[in-house]
Amino acid sequence: MNREDFPIFKQDLIYFDNGATTMKPQCVIDSMTDYYSNYTANAHRGDYDNSMKVDVLYEGVRGKVRKLIDAKDASEVVFTKGTTESLNLVVFGFMKNELKEGDEVLLTKSEHASNLLPWMELEKEIGIVIKYIPLTEDNEVTIPNVLSTITDRTKVISLAQVTNVIGDVRPMKEIGEICSQRGIYFVVDGAQSVPHRKVSVQEMNADFLAFSGHKMLGPTGVGVLWGKKELLERTKPLCYGGGMNTSFESTGDFELKEVPTKFDAGTPAIAEVIGLGRAIDYLEEIGLDKIESYEQELKSYLLARLKEVPKIQIYNEKTASSIVAFNIEGVFSQDTAVYLNHYHICVRAGNHCAKILKEQLGVKNTCRISLYLYNTKEEIDELIRVLKDAEHIFDIVL
Amino acid sequence: MDSNLRREIILDNYQHPLHKGLVEEEGYQKIRTNNSSCIDDLMIMVKVEEGKIKDIRFDGEACAISTSATSIMIRNFMGKTYEEAKALLESYEAMIDEKPYDKELLGELNVYDEIYKQPNRKKCALLPFRAIHQILENKDLFNK
User: Fold this and answer.
1) CB-closest option in A351, A364, A394 to B11
2) Is A293 left (phi over 0), alpha (psi -120 to 50) or beta?
């Protein structure tokens, strides 16, 4: 749907790597060009027209994000570089001061590196203990498995709402409820969910939610950390400088601004934030419900047609998101991706930043197709045509 | 080289690589070669004895180019002295890098003489040779 809004598709390009990043509609590109061409100014300063305009637009995007994720207040929206920085801010700005040696953090082996490495580093720094919630045969998280991993020392559960290799959709509402009953912090990695479905931080009972702009039709270099106000107030910024303090003295005393401005040290990514705001408008104009159901329709079609391909193995047929991981027997995933590239079809090969998932899947590398609203059944037909011809794969890649 | 023959040699070495599988034995240098920009990940073990490369074995997951290059490397580097291995390695790297090289010396390794046409796969063809590099850095191994 809405394919004509994306200038990149004037090229001969079939883009199936939306879990990595997404294409940009013209309106998002225009919104950023407009800032650079017509009203460039810094935010939070100046008494002149352009600066005031920038301030209103920049701060206004917090309101758009609030509405998108059903948060209580726009001041709970912090702009970051992306999901990775958002999760690092949670771990090193908040958890590092709240957790003690021996406190347990529950993760899974299918988390992205950015929801694993910060915790592993914190484990080294202060001695928290990482535990992995066991996954089912279909690599999913179940409530009984969550409950059986929780102990008296469990302080945090940090999970992707939708994982980036398997694409399973976790029962976040139930997990959030368990967390809030037991005083466990619930951190949600929304990188693969916020772009594709309606997300409500209140319904999930989340304490923090992290996501990226570029995976939801917005620009690179901007993302969001949403957190409950009282938790953000206790979070220490990772970056200090201009724009985030109210006063400082040569004695070394200084005072920070309120949440969320205390996290805005230095000039923020103003054009990118404005672009993100436009991307949110665009997604909401179409409707996230509609996007989700369209992706579901495409995914069912993709699965049905993939089964026509000889020697194909699909790893995540049952999951509810629009991500499909597969291999062709006897062909290394990277060779498959290079082969598809020959026909201008973009898929991702590899471990997809989930390097310990191999312990669970028993296979290290897969090809991943991740769909989005602009993909079509015709593109899937072309993929299948090329894959069915894969016996000639080495004529192309060698 | 005829392109069908080239493809046949590469494919044969990919599907039936030489010395795949590691051994639990003393006297081997173990070298892990992987690449941050691709997903190939190989463990290579090399035994040097009496001034020559006595044995090379490997295991791991890698693409057709890396795997076949490992297999062909093993066949061509076994039995080589320090000087022979060094000359062969330098010539091979020069070929991948599109510099002048000794075509005759390379023999079977010439199958990668057109890899420069796919620049993103040069690193695949070079990957296993890092193990030889590392072995040659330790010249003492050859003097025992």
Assistant:
1) A394
2) alpha
